[in-house]
Design goal:
- The protein has 400 residues and is an alpha+beta fold.
- Helices cover 37% and strands 17% of the residues.
- The chain folds into four domains: 35-215, Lambda Exonuclease, Chain A; 227-282, no CATH class; 285-316 and 376-399, no CATH class; 320-373, no CATH class.
- The strands form four sheets. A five-stranded mixed beta sheet has the order 3-4-5-6-7, sandwiched between helices.
- The two termini are 36 Å apart.
């Protein structure tokens, strides 16, 4: 499924971050490419199921069980858990539409350039009342994640509310009701609603949102850390995080010209969190991966890197069927349960057999009888004191 639009650097999903940390926007602008995570891809697939069902009242989430949805970088399967979660959202929105009537808009794009240029987005769904004079505009946002998100005065949700409301209140509504549907959320009700007046929402746009957006454009826009840092992709580029993280490392000395890592047991909880977030951030790990790739390529070209060498590592691929016809015959007693749109994979069939009452060990043994695993050889770089023999010309040929 292709991307529907380019994301705004000052968009709704990142509003809490750039409202508190305007400097982060210029760092995001420096990223060469933003890669999709598996979590984001799963959320995208769930949103697609929600969209299909709301656009066609005859469609239900269960109808898409087992469907593979292509996102930007992943191919995501619609699982039973996803069906159950999206069912909560679809039922709630349909219930509200049946109760209040009006016009249901699904995946509706909006433009907030009237607040500030570069602000735009897309609402999951909203209901515009028929009798709009003094009515309530209802906005719904589906969240697939587990981390609790509350609707009360949520900047992202207010941004969505403004997007649905538009400039100069064309619907003539008095209130905007914003609802988060989060079926997988931890320790919270799956339905969380907050209502604000049209007047207050417009005031927030002019008094809070617009000044914050303008602040992001300053060359020296400040940085701020807080809970909004949790999912920030530029933590390793952040001067505030960098200075705090490096301050925790030992100072270089003539005997040890590089900084030393502190004993983990000596760190305070807040220091552990700071270092973990800094060194595992996507930008930092991407740099480390690029460094490792360059090192491996250099060694493959015959460049001597003191203390490092190339070795050949061996692993096994995922199981695959040796003879699908034999599998179908051997498990014919289970009928259509061994299929999705095609014969299930070894892992899927093993899980299915367990659900049908076959003991775990027996299920694995029966399935393994019909599977094979390819041996995969790979090249890796290790320290020169690793006991594995270094590889020579035969390995270098792999890089020709």
């Amino acid at each position: 499924m292709p991307e529907k639009e380019v994301h705004s650097f000052i968009g709704a999903s990142s509003a809490e971050r750039w409202l508190h940390c305007p400097g982060s926007v210029r760092l995001y602008a420096q990223l060469p490419e933003r890669h999709e995570t598996s979590y984001a891809a799963t959320g995208t697939a769930a949103h697609q199921v929600c969209e299909w069902c709301l656009l066609d009242s005859k469609k239900e989430p269960e109808m898409f069980l087992g469907t593979m949805i292509q996102t930007k970088e992943f191919n995501i399967e619609v699982t039973e858990q996803m069906v159950e979660a999206t069912r909560v959202y679809v039922d709630h929105v349909r219930g509200q539409y049946k109760k209040y009537g009006g016009t249901l808009l699904v995946e509706q794009p909006f433009d907030l350039s009237w607040v500030h240029p570069g602000m735009f987005g897309r609402n999951d769904s909203c209901i515009i009342p028929n009798n709009t004079l003094g009515g309530v505009l209802r906005v719904f946002d589906y969240k697939n994640g587990r981390k609790r998100v509350d609707a009360l005065e949520n900047p992202q949700l207010q941004y969505y509310g403004l997007g649905a409301l538009g400039k100069n209140n064309p619907w003539f509504v008095d209130e905007v009701e914003i609802t988060i549907i989060q079926p997988n959320g931890i320790a919270k009700s799956p339905i969380d609603t907050w209502c604000t007046t049209t007047k207050d929402l417009y005031a927030w746009a002019m008094d809070v949102l617009r000044p914050a957006a303008i602040a992001t454009e300053a060359p020296d826009a400040p940085f701020g850390d807080g809970r909004w840092c949790q999912f920030c992709e530029v933590q390793s580029m952040c001067p505030l995080k960098r200075d705090k993280a490096l301050a925790l490392l030992g100072d270089p000395t003539p005997a040890h010209p590089v900084a030393t890592l502190p004993a983990v047991s000596s760190l305070k909880p807040e220091e552990i969190g700071l270092l973990s977030a800094f060194f595992t951030s996507e930008e930092f790990t991407s740099w480390v991966k690029a460094l490792a790739a360059e090192e491996q390529a250099a060694l493959a070209r015959g460049v001597l890197i003191p203390g490092r060498k190339l070795i050949e590592a061996t692993s096994l691929s995922n199981r695959k069927w040796t003879d699908e016809a034999a599998v179908i015959q051997a498990f014919s007693e289970f009928g259509e349960d061994i299929f999705n749109s095609k014969l299930k994979s070894p892992a899927q069939l093993t899980a299915t057999l367990q659900k049908l009452g076959v003991p775990k060990a027996e299920a694995k043994t029966r399935v393994d009888e019909f599977t094979t695993r390819d041996e995969i050889k790979s090249i890796k770089v290790v320290n020169e004191d690793d006991p594995t023999p270094a590889r020579g010309d035969d390995v270098l040929k792999l890089f020709d």
